[in-house]
From TrEMBL:
Residues 181-370 form the Nitroreductase domain. It comes from the Bacteria. This is Dehydrogenase. The lineage of its organism: Bacteria, Pseudomonadati, Pseudomonadota, Gammaproteobacteria, Lysobacterales. NCBIfam families: antibiot_sagB (TIGR03605), SagB_rel_DH_2 (TIGR04511). It comes from Xanthomonas campestris pv. translucens.
């Protein structure tokens, strides 16, 4: 049997503080600090503690060349066995579907830049309720934030004296300015009102549809959309949780940007409203939206061009920003509310939509639909551009 190290691997020296009664009774501060080595490998779902010998063995083995296991020093036998069991070392006889070797091969073939893979994989949530966490820590209001965290940095960065600033003329507001002024994150959706199918389809077309498809040498194809994309690759997919659209069965879908069509997906194992709330990590004010859109890049498409590139993941984040802002403006133009949040349970979403997280995964969830007739959850609308106007809005 031959072995080698997994392709992407980071070792972190970590210090953990624990309560120690003996220290407290002896006149100390009651804390015991323990140091450990933690292995972070993006092809795995969890971080792993390693000891000094395991750490050194991982550093001594190649991630590209195979080494005969019999050639390893005898004192490394136990360490090597354990590293094979947890997937930090791989052997050339591992052909199990979904096994460590296959998952490591997927990471190699996707051309991830290692630090980006690390941040992406270990920043994912599963089963988190961000609302409960914020309420427990008293972080749901500005007053609570300041009390717990102290004053924030200034709201504006200044690089000179006020007297030295050069005032710019204020342009006269037009209809587009009025549209921009009405854009405000919606936290109050009308749970009794469905979206018209035609208007829903129009928003999807404006935000996600391909305007033109261009083939290059009969090998590669590129799409022209209303939003820009890094490298012109448009790697981000739109997955939908449809709750209330006239003429459309509630369920989960994938949007096809060339055919401008929905692809029905298998029903999730949990109720649709539970999935919506789980997806947005307990933010019930967002889960009430008639339509939620999961924006999930296909990483292999981006890294096909930008192989092991330190800027590729950043370009994907820019793509998400372009799409979410376009969705906001299109929803506002339709007299709807919209939201975007990155506080999401990525793992739960991946499982519900059948995504392989090494190849494709959610970065944000957006949503849109009719606003509720009354404001029950606070929204940031200090100028009253939304809620003051909504008083006279027809139902």
């Amino acid at each position: 049997m031959r072995v080698r190290r997994c392709f992407h691997l980071f070792i972190e020296p970590r210090e953990v503080s624990r309560f120690d009664m003996a220290s407290l009774l002896a006149g100390g501060n009651g804390l015991r600090r323990e140091r450990q080595w933690v292995a972070l490998a993006p092809h795995l779902e969890q971080e792993l503690e390693v000891d000094a010998l395991e750490r050194e063995l991982l550093g001594a083995l190649s991630a590209g060349d195979w080494t005969d296991a019999q050639a390893l020093p005898s004192h490394c036998a136990v360490a090597g066995t354990r590293l094979l069991e947890v997937g930090l070392l791989l052997h050339d006889n591992d052909d199990a579907p979904g096994g460590f070797a296959e998952r490591d091969a997927t990471m190699r073939e996707a051309y991830w830049w290692g630090p980006a893979a690390l941040v992406h994989r270990f920043g994912r949530w599963q089963g988190s309720d961000s609302v409960v966490a914020m309420e427990a820590n008293g972080l749901t209001t500005a007053a609570g934030l300041c009390e717990k965290l102290g004053p924030p940095p200034a709201e504006v960065g200044e690089r000179g004296a006020a007297a030295a600033r050069l005032p710019l003329p204020h342009a006269r507001a037009d209809d587009f300015d009025a549209l921009l002024a009405r854009r405000a994150t919606c936290r109050n959706f009308d749970t009794a009102r469905a979206l018209p199918l035609v208007a829903f389809a129009q928003l999807m077309q404006r935000v996600f549809a391909a305007r033109v498809r261009v083939e290059a040498d009969g090998v590669a194809a590129f799409l022209k959309k209303n939003a820009p994309s890094g490298g012109g690759l448009h790697a981000t997919e739109a997955y939908l949780i449809v709750q209330r659209v006239h003429g459309l069965a509630p369920g989960v879908y994938h949007y096809h940007p060339v055919d401008h069509a929905l692809e029905p997906l298998p029903a999730p194992d949990i109720a649709l409203d539970v999935l919506a709330r789980t997806a947005v990590a307990g933010q019930h004010w967002f889960a009430d939206a008639p339509v939620l859109v999961v924006m999930a890049p296909r990483y292999a498409r981006m890294y096909w061009k930008y192989r092991h590139h330190p800027k590729a993941y950043r370009a994907l984040l820019l793509d998400i920003g372009h799409l979410s802002q376009l969705l906001y403006l299109c929803a506002t133009q339709a007299q709807w509310g919209a939201f975007v949040t990155s506080a999401i349970n990525e793992v739960d979403i991946e499982q519900a939509f059948g995504m392989d997280p090494l190849r494709e995964g959610p970065l944000v969830v957006c949503g849109f639909g009719w606003r509720a007739p009354a404001l029950t959850t606070a929204e940031f609308d200090p100028a009253g551009a939304v809620w003051q106007a909504s008083v006279s809005r027809s139902p």
